[in-house]
Amino acid sequence: MALQVYNTLTNKKEEVVPVTPGKITMYLCGPTVYDYFHIGNARPFIVYDIFRRYLKYRGYDVKFVMNVTDIDDKIITKAIKEAVPASEVAGKYTNAFFEDLEKLGVEPADEYPKATENINEIIALIERLIDKGLAYQIEGDVYYSVAKFSGYGKLSGKNIEELKSGARIEIDARKKNPLDFSLWKAAKPGEPAWDSPWGKGRPGWHIECSVMSMKYLGETIDIHAGGSDLVFPHHENEIAQSEGASGKPFVKYWMHNGFLNIEGEKMSKSLGNFFTARDIMKKYHASVIRMFFLQKHYKSPVSFSEDRILESQNALERIITAMQNIDIVLKDIDFEDNDDQKVVEQIAGLKSEFLKNMDDDFNTAGAMSNIFDLVKEANHILSKTSLLREDYITLKEIRAIIEEFDSFLGILSYKEEMHTSVSEDSLISILLDVREQLRKEKLWNLSDEIRDKLANLGVEIKDYPDKTIWMKKIKS
RNA sequence: GGCGGCGUAGCCAAGUGGCUAAGGCGGAGGUCUGCAAAAUCUCUAUUCAUCGGUUCGACUCCGAUCGCCGCCUCCA
Asked: Domains in chain A, ordered, with CATH?
């Protein structure tokens, strides 16, 4: 089955046919850097990271761009509050953004263009829109005239007349239409500003994504993604700007992820009901957070709570433990590398189920169940008293395939990074050596005391016939 | 009011017009183990919000009702 994606533009699942065969251009609306991002903001960063890597795994040449909005009302407000330059606020949280992304195991985008580094291009696009009669200038501000763009509303399914009658739209008497949005904002005293044909000012929020998408990926791109709250007005406005200027379709497939709710409400900065990703990661491994999102469909709303995260942690440990157990069994086995045809076919069947789910609008929740099918098969073999040659081959295959999938899932690092501190590692290994001696002498009281005390410190021990392994674990 | 989405076991969560409705977490019991942990085996939805309709047949399609959420204002 070919790769299918739910397209917000058509409200249907569609087969992905790239603009250029074999290549995928993908744009994700990035952060406004005025604060640390929260765990809800992390969702698109993680899920589209997984999708992008999956597309690469499937053989597409993927070019992925995410913008950084580094000039904006919120940044200015924060800068005033903290009595520092806006650029300092932006700089600080841009750095934090990259740090957190890396910790989340997100592969760097091909480009991270910043608004302030594309002012000339932004001005050029606004001029183009003015020339085409789609935008107009008032006292140093420039507005987009939505009535001039016939496709306005096609993404969000809204029409201009209905929107106009909506009570929540702020009326600015200078605008031709209340829905007209700003492309360029005249500078107020003390605000950061750039020279432009309309005087000193700064770009509106929507224009930068149009500029950067077209600049780095072309006038028509394959996938443009973001949270579902961006459908209107942000993405609607991007279409108006981009298609208004280029006359070409802006995006083939619009993808929108669902929200993270907390106690039934959307997690958001303005509601104040949020946890920053960096705080969550102090307590839970990034792989656990990825697992949490992987177990849900990206379009569904998700409730956040520590219980849910813990559930994901336990589920992830089932996979990790199986991988460790396979390693222990396979470690001393030397078998010639000739594959068993029956095994290969069986595993290929399980593999194709997984890929089928991923191809179906990135059904990661379904795909994860296929991973657990593999885990179950491996555990089943591991529990047998004596293993046949084909058992070893099956284990080897299962291990390889899960590792292969992890090239885009990014969850197996849980194991490795639970052992980060060298000094801690060596101390524990000494304790375990001692305990091993005690166990040989059947001094169970002492050996159990070591185990229990380590457990109190969050170091969990598992005894196997020929070795003992340990990992750090957070208990609820 | 308009637009979009959702309601599947104790919890999380896939899914299909028709064989036994995935998987995970949690729970119960048995096995294994010095004890733990891990693992394994068995059990944990005669039923998919409610009510109608279409159909030989629907949880899956259509309509209505109830409930929940998002967007319509900055927002992932």
From this structure: 4-136+144-162+206-283 (3.40.50.620), 304-417 (1.20.120.640), 422-472 (no CATH)
